[in-house]
Structure formats: C-alpha cells, structure tokens
Amino acid sequence: MREKAKILDKESINRAVMRIAHEILEKNKGTQDLCLIGIRNRGAFLAQRLADAIRKIDNAGVPVGALDITLYRDDLTLISTQPLVRKTEIDFDITDKNVVLVDDVLYTGRTIRAALDALIDFGRPRSIQLAVLIDRGHRELPIRADYAGKNIPTANNETVDVRLEEVDGRDEAVIVGKDE
Amino acid sequence: MNNTLVWTKKDLLGLEYLTKEEIELILSTADSFKEVSTREIKKVPALRGKTVVNLFYEPSTRTRVSFEVAAKRLSADVINIASETSSVKKGETLIDTGRNIQALKADIIVMRHNYSGAAVVLARNVDLSVVNAGDGWHEHPTQALLDIFTLKEKLGKISGLNVTIVGDIAHSRVARSNIWGLAKLGAHVTVCAPQVLIPPAIDELGVRVLHDIDAALKDADAVNVLRMQFERDEESAFPKQMEYFQNYGITQERLKKVKKNIVIMHPGPINRGIEMSSEVADGANSVILEQVTNGIAVRMAVLFLVAQARDNKSSQG
Amino acid sequence: MRDEGILIKHGRVIDPANKIDQVLDILVEDARISRVAKEIKVKADTVIEAKGKIVMPGLVDMHVHLREPGREDKETIETGTRASLKGGVTSLLAMPNTIPAIDSADNVKLIKEIIKKTAQVNVFISGAITKGRLGRELTDIARLKAEGVVAITDDGVSVDDETLFSEALKEAKVEDMLVVCHCEDKALSGKGVVNRGIVATRTGLRGISNESEFARVERDIRLAQKTGSRIHIAHVSCRESVEKIAQAKKEGIKVTAETCPHYFALSEECVLGYDTNFKMNPPLRSKDDVEAVKEGLKNGTIDAISSDHAPHTENEKDIEFDRAEFGVIGLQTELAVAISELVETKVLDWLTLAEKMSLNPAKILGINKGTLGEGQDADIIIIDPRKEWVVKKEGFLSRSKNSAFLGRSLKGVVTHTICSGNLCFTNGK
Hints:
A: 4 helices, B: 317 residues, 5-stranded parallel sheet
C-alpha cells in the first residue's frame, strides 16, 4: 500500500465540517427536531464535531448518537478481517426526527444501506439525510449525499483513508493506491 | 482498539479450549449485543438466512429458550429437536444425526447432551458450527460466559476477584466452565462442597478446595451457587437435602459475615430453601435475573462469532 | 506344500532361550530349525539376506480377542491371524469371550474346527472359568484341558465370588491349568471409563481408580497363595499392581504378569480429546503408572507383553465416549511400539524384549514356542529395526481399525514372518 495524495489536511477538514454544519442548519431551518447519528467508527466522531460546530453557530445542542452497522452488513463474508461488533448508542427517540446520518467516506453506498436498515429498527424518523466528509463515487446503490465535504474522483483500486485525531492522532484524508 | 483479534473457531465447545483473548472478545461482543434487546425492534439481520438447530438430548427449557431467543434476535431460523421426538430415540448415532442436520444445510447446531464430550465428538465429525449447550459433567461454556459477563458488569473486572463456587462440583459442567474461564481471566477461584462432591485432583486446575462454607465466603467478591440435582442421585454418599441446606445453603445469616457487596449468582432453576433461602435469592445481592438477561446477549455473541468464522473459512477454502 | 529349506543369512539372532545375541545364519528344514551357526554353507530353496536385521523367535501373544465365533463383524480367526503374521505374531492365545463363550468341550471343538480351516498362525485356546463367563458356575476344567485348552480366564470380567474363584483355582491346580486373571473390582470401577484423576475431572468422564485393579490383584494373589495354583495377571496398568506382584514373587507365590503396549506407551492425557481409540479397560493411567509399568518390565516383575487385541467396529467406537466399547487392536503394532518405547529408550535390550514377547509367554502357557534352538518349531521373524513407519488405517489387516496408535510414527518393521517353517509373510525388500 502506498499513499498517493493527501486530499484533506486538518484545516480543510475543519472548514468542511463547518460548512456542512451551516448547510444542515440552513436546510433544516435550525435545530428543531434535528439529530445527528454517526456511523461507527469515524462517522461517530464526525457527528460529534458537527454537533460542536452547530452549537458554535446556533448556540443550540443537538442529540448525537452512534450506530454500529456490523450486524446489518451484506458483505460480512467478503471482508478479510472480521469486524468487531461495537456498541450502538442512540439514547433518544428518533421517531419524527430529522436524522442526519454521518459517515467519513461515501463509496458503494452499501454501508449507508445497512445504516438505513438499522435506523428504521430504532423508530420512524420524519426524514433521513446523509452527510459525508468525502464522496469518492462508484455507487452501487441509488444513494446520494445531501452534504459532502469534498467530491473526489478515485479509481476502484484505490482506497480513501480518513484519519481523525480521536482515533488516529491526526486529521487528514489520503488516497492510498494498491501496490502492483 | 483491539482490531487484530479475529475469532477463527467454528465451534464453541468449552472454555478450556479458549484463550483469555477469545473469552474477552466474546464478552465485549456480548456487550454490544446487549443493546439490541433494549430496542423497540429487538432484532438485527446479522444471521438472516442462517439456520440454527437446537439439538437437545436432555430436557432443558431455560437454556434452549435462551438460545432460541438469541438466534431469533439475530434473524436466524430456529429448529428445535428434542431427543424424545427424534430418531435419536430410534438408535441413530450422534454422528449420523449431526450429518443429517448438515444435509439439511443448517449452519449451527446448539447441542445439549447427557454424555461428557459429546459436543467435541460431534464437532469433529461435521462441518457446521457446534455450540455446546452443556455436555454431561464436562462444560457449559455459555453459562459460564454469562456468569462472568454479569460479574464483570457488576464489579467492573474479573482479574483479582475472589469467586467461590458452592455445590456439586463433581457433577457440574457449570463449575468446570466457570473454573476455566475465571482462572484464565485472573480470578481466584474457591470451590466449596462436601468431599464426596469434589472431583479428584481438582486443585490441579488452580482452585482452592474448602469444605466449610463460611470460610469459603469469607473473602469472596462473588459466589456462584450451583443447582443441587438430588433427582439424579446415583452416589450413595449424596447428602440429604435438609442437611445440605444447613451446611451449605446461602442464608441472610451467613451473608452478615461476608463482604457487603458480594454478588450472588445461580444458573437456575433455584431450589429455594436448599441452595439458598428465598430472601437471598430475591435480595439485593442477587443478580439471578440479570444473568438470564445477559444470557441472551452472550449467546447472540457466540452464535454470531461462530457463524462468521465458518463463513470466513468456507469463503477462503 | 512346504518349502524345502529356508536359509536366513547374516542376521543378528536374538534367542533368549539360548542366551544368543550375535550375527548367525539359521537354516529351516521340515518346519524346524535345523541349524543355527556362522556362515552355513548349504543350498536352500529360499535364501533371505538379513544383514542389519534382527532375527527373533516369532512373537507369542497371550492375550488376543479374535471374536470368532459370534462377532465376525469385528474380526475372524482368519483376519486376526493374517494381522498376526504382519505383526510378527506366530502364536497366540485366543480369549474365550466369544459368542458362545468357550466354556464347554463342544465349544472348544467348534473353535478348533474354525482354527483348523482358517488360522494362519498357531492359535492356542483358552477356556472360560465359569459358564457363560457369568461368574456363577464353574466350567469342567478337566474336559476343557482334554480338548487342548491351555489356560482358563473369564477375561473381560473378574470372578467376583471369592469362594467360587477359590474352587476354580483348586481345580486348575489339579489339572495344572494356568488361570489368567482380569483384575477388576466392578464395585469400585462402576460405570467408569477413564482413569480416576485430573483427566477424569477435566473431561467430566467417570473415573476408574487404581484400587479397582490392584485390590483385585491383591485378592487373586492371596487366593493363589492359599490354593497353590498358578495365576497370570492380565493387562497390568498401575503402580500398585506392579508393587503387589513384585511382593508376591518375592514371597515365592506362583504369579506371572503381562502388560500391554498402551500401558507403557500412552498415558491418560490421550483421552482429553474424547478419542475412543484411547478407551480401554483398564484405562490409560497416569505418567507415574506408566513409569511403574516400565520399571516392572525392566526389573522382571512383569514377565510378558501382550496386545490385548480387542477389535471393535467403527459403529461401536465412533460415538460418545461413554457409550463406546472398551479396547483397542494391537497385533500389528505391539512389536513396533515395544521397539520404539522400550528398546530405543534403553528400557529393555533386544534379548529381554524377545523374552517378554516370545519366550516368557510361551513358558507361562507351557507351550513349546519362543525359542530359536535347533530342533525347535520354525517360528521366526525378521525385523528391520531402523525402519520408521506411520500407523494408518489402510495398513491394518484386522477387520477393525480401532488402534490407539493411529497417526503415530513407529520404529521397527517385520520384514519376514516364518510360521511352522513356511515363509508366510514378507514386507519390503
């Protein structure tokens, strides 16, 4: 594996988060009935950052939850290392809420499909919107992001790694190419 | 975050055969699964399309129901086979039964059997996953896992705890699984029973053997009280019920002399007034019903992990 | 018809009866050993070059269950004796727990008929002590003897009734008949299936104590002393039994003893995986008991090594440990296990090994076998002592495959078996 290019640094991640926060507020006309649910692992941290940004802008708190979608995946047997089942923590009712689902990278759309299934088991939201830090294309399902920090064209044999301070010790996003 | 540990075993046969890390992985996975049972819709699609067969050669309502609930909350299809209603009674061998279930394209057999080692023998002879739900006097791994899970939930850790197991150790698979699991996680285990109910050379497993219940409870952080099965009394030296309660029963009186927060567990079903008094069973220290709840999460974790290990193996092969 | 002469050249001849351990030639003529000497210069029809090999009297295995009549699905006299040839066993004592049991002159006649038709080696017959081996009524020992029975035993069970067993011993003394004792107090061993100890505790399997064996060894020795008859203790497995036999021998009591390869090669830990090929009676014991058995072999307390060859079908073995039959096959592995575990490890030298596996059992049974003396029956085996092989199911000529040594690498292969002067089996070069 080889890093090909850095596509976001700390600064640009912060700016993207701030911009998405503004867009969410604009679209939902404030924080009324709004909640954020991040997909584990890094989406959960991004959701928290978005909530912090929203508080800065609007001086209002929004509930934040974390969703583990391992049990809803349709590709369990295809992933080489076994995923750890992590905790889902949504300690508020999502029924009739406007839920913003948050993830780091949008790719085939399968993770989001699993997350939608999972969310619906928790209640009946009024709407579900999707916020991602990076949209790298190659969708396999009819899913699109309502908010994207950055659109980056990639090749299928590349991967996009988002690293966050909370887990990785630094903020950046890179494109990684597979060695020949 | 420990991402490197991968569960690779297709079966869960006993805690003797697991590493400390594997036991911890089951416990942490169970921790995540516990939340599922608190949802409005208590179901996730993780084992959708999988078939779990409960093969019970011994009657056991609670363990079977617990496994059935666990499997259903994972969206698996569940089939129950009890030995009284199956061809087992007609003399079919265990291995033939297993292969027939395999031919049905089932994925997991959860087996309760009256002979020690039956799960080990079955697992060796079939490709599908075998989860031991109790085999003879050998092991009952999911019971011990749920005991340990509950203990960890209550006391925050296992390592360094003093855990006393009281009752018929000699004929108890629950005792053996607990001894292995607790020892691997660093607890100090004491077993307490009259000599006739202590199996030979048990001290070689690193446990302390005491015959005096008050001494055994003295420093205990937790006590696991085993069910006394007077009905299968085959040893002439078996103590009588009243005598047992007097000498080994857990009572409020006895608890006055021990750690205030002592955790009291029992795998159920309880014989009130034999293993412990009703006040103790229903008292503040008792976690007996929490054990039942946790049993679901632990069994969900086990079913999920073995099913995945088997899928991973077959996709590689 | 018979081969006219076999000449075995340059082999290391091991003949404990004549205290020979040197490189010699052996000439076989007319079913007998006609000469044992250096560089025999004669023309023989068959010449076997045995340089680097061991030439030994054929094994005399005094504890073999051939299962015929009655359980031909497990073994027949033909298949069992073919296995014997491959394993180097040229004489054996067939156990009487067949169906029907060998408990009457008629049943002896029945088995003699089958032996005559199908046996590939010398099969000696043991009779039951009690009718149906039920421990209630003695058989007619004199008539059994008259039909050629060389020993009596209820092997598989002990005669619990002390008075009855005393009677049997007295009768046996009158007839000068050997009594082979299966020493087990059922009241103590009960439903046990493995050695009583840590392995029983770990596996949750019921234990069989050493006491259930040695208490009965003690009783049988006491009764032998009282009655003055000859007893032979079968399949000794534990330290206390070895000690009690040693003590009895010291006191001049007429007792001999055997053990089996699994009791000096394997210990109780083998059963941790519930492999029923490690289920036998008595059970595999602790490492300390294994040491005691080896010491007993070394110091002469244990006279003989026998296989306790006990064939069972896969249906009877491939099941839950508790339900599986007791016993393992051994005719084809006993020599290699003994070489690997006793000779290679210097517990026994070759002469002593030949004593334990040929000469002593022949002496105990009172049969004229187990020697390479001139004029004796030509039952001879040639062994490649360095050749290693892995025990596999496919290699067994026995009808059953329940070996405790499957998958094991062993040293020592029988390359030639000469039985009654005929070269009956050859293997390899």
